[in-house]
Design a protein that fits this description.
Distance between the termini: 132 Å
CATH superfamily of the domain at 14-298: Protein tyrosine phosphatase superfamily
Strand order of the largest sheet: 1-2-10-3-9-8-7-6
Helix content: 25-40%
CATH class of the domain at 14-298: Alpha Beta
Radius of gyration: 35 Å
Number of helices: 10
Structural class: alpha/beta
CATH architecture of the domain at 14-298: Alpha-Beta Complex
Length: about 475
């Protein structure tokens, strides 16, 4: 069954949809409609409500659906609060589960062993807001002297090593079946800076974490599904799986083939409540947009071509059209051989870049106001919303005074770089004119002071000469 949300046109460009939702501040509205649609599924979760299983749930309102729950094969119970999530078109499978409780640690590791998972993705801290969000389910220290023994399920866990990557940690844990002595090394990726009910600090950091997870091959179909958990196993866990699946689909079928809301609703059929807040939904869009741009950059066969940026898009009618998309690798083409749509721009920043304002430039003296009219910037140019971070020639100091070099290089520059250089040239011309006006003003002031300094002695001298002449005249006359 495929859900369709009637708020937006299905199959819209993700960039356009994101900008429209942002402009209208409709994230809470869209999120609520997704939630309402998924509640109509009415999947049963009767196993979670059985008296003997209630104590195995971390939260009363987060229960695994019966049809997709993980069933344990040995031990005292077959129940664990976990679901297998399938995204068939992306060929992805994940097991989403709650952070283990003290009385479910053995069930957790039994699930890892029986499902042949290669990795555990932990997206929360053990303690958040002074509350336990997850019991520490691995040994407290590294080494053979601190092995955790789980006798009720016949397993043991040894902590082998840890690596610190600033905002996330990686650990290697050795899981051993004590009956057969067979062992398997499990990779744990622990994201330690993702707040509860919140979002990571930036899509870039999150995508680097996702890239690291992917590079270890733990999400491939050749191994068991990765175990993904936070505290409840629905908010942060759902965000991770949604972004990963959508990026796989973009790589396979093209940018405009993915409907983020539809994918989320499909995933919610397997586990309730995936993505808990409108902000997590908004962040998912941001990460998908940024991830798609990185994907296109990675497979770009013409490195001189600049991928458009949100801040390079101006509303002025005089702006040049965006450049045509560069050739892509075969892995980014649709199955029918047709080329993809133009590449995605960067996600917009939380605060847009300030427009250029020459009056506030550091080259102006605060106490000086030049006389006469200032040079006028052509209408529309002062409101350009281009990014101040457009790339220049790495060997250049940014100067555009050499007009011949600019003319020779203009044919190989992207429109954004041309506009940037024109803007720099206009700014330098304006500053030069202001400096010239200041120089002339200073010359005029100096000349005025010189005339005043000469005028006073001449007046005094003339007065003395006149007085002396009059005295002489009256002396001889008398």
């Amino acid at each position: 069954m495929v859900y369709i949300i009637d708020t937006m046109t299905s199959g819209n460009n993700i960039e356009t949809e994101y900008l429209e939702l942002n402009a209208k501040n409709e994230w809470p509205v869209v999120y609520q409609r997704i939630r309402s649609k998924s509640l109509k599924d009415n999947s049963s979760y009767s196993e979670a409500t059985k008296p003997q299983n209630k104590v195995l749930n971390r939260y009363r309102d987060v229960s695994p659906y019966d049809h997709s729950r993980i069933i344990l094969q040995r031990g005292s119970t077959d129940y664990i609060n976990a679901n297998l999530i399938k995204v068939e078109k992306a060929n992805r499978r994940y097991i989403l589960t709650q952070g283990p409780l003290a009385n479910t640690v053995s069930h957790f590791w039994l699930m890892v062993w029986e499902q042949q998972a290669k990795a555990v993705l932990m997206l929360n801290k053990l303690i958040e807001k002074r509350q336990e969000k997850c019991y520490q389910y691995w040994p407290a220290k590294i080494g053979g002297d601190h092995i955790m023994t789980l006798s009720d399920v016949g397993l043991s866990v040894e902590y082998l090593e840890q690596q610190d990557h600033s905002y996330y940690l990686t650990r290697i844990l050795r899981l051993t079946d004590t009956e057969t002595s067979k062992s398997r090394d499990i990779l744990q990726f622990h994201y330690i800076t993702w707040p509860d009910f919140g979002v990571p600090s930036s899509p870039t950091a999150f995508l680097e974490f996702l890239r690291k997870v992917r590079s270890e091959g733990v999400l491939e179909t050749s191994v068991g599904p990765a175990i993904v958990h936070c505290s409840a196993g629905i908010g942060r866990s759902g965000t991770f799986c949604l972004v990963d699946s959508c990026l796989v689909l973009i790589e396979k079928f093209g940018l405009n083939s993915v409907d983020v809301k539809e994918i989320l609703l499909e995933m919610r059929k397997y586990r309730m409540g995936l993505i808990q807040t409108p902000e997590q939904l908004r962040f998912s869009y941001q990460a998908i947009i940024e991830g798609a741009k990185q994907l296109l950059n990675q497979n770009n066969s013409e490195p001189d071509e600049v991928i458009p940026d949100y801040h390079e898009v101006s509303e002025s009618e005089d702006d040049e059209p965006p450049p045509l998309p560069p050739p892509r690798m075969d892995s980014l083409k649709k199955q029918n051989g047709t080329s993809l749509d133009r590449p995605l721009p960067n996600i917009p920043k939380s605060v847009s870049d300030d427009d250029l304002n020459y009056e506030n430039s550091d080259t102006f003296e605060k106490t000086y106001i030049p006389s006469g009219p200032l040079p006028v910037v052509p209408a529309g140019e002062e409101e350009e919303e281009e990014s101040e971070e457009d790339e220049l020639d790495p060997q250049s100091d940014g100067s555009v005074s050499d007009k011949s070099d600019l003319a020779n290089s203009v044919n190989r520059l992207s429109p954004s770089e041309v506009r940037h250089r024109k803007r720099v040239e206009r700014k330098e011309n304006l500053e030069a004119q202001v400096r010239d006006m200041k120089r002339r003003q200073q010359i005029n002031e100096q000349w005025t002071q010189l005339k005043r300094s000469l005028y006073i002695p001449l007046v005094i001298g003339g007065s003395l000469i006149l007085s002396g002449g009059l005295l002489t005249y009256f002396y001889f006359k008398s």
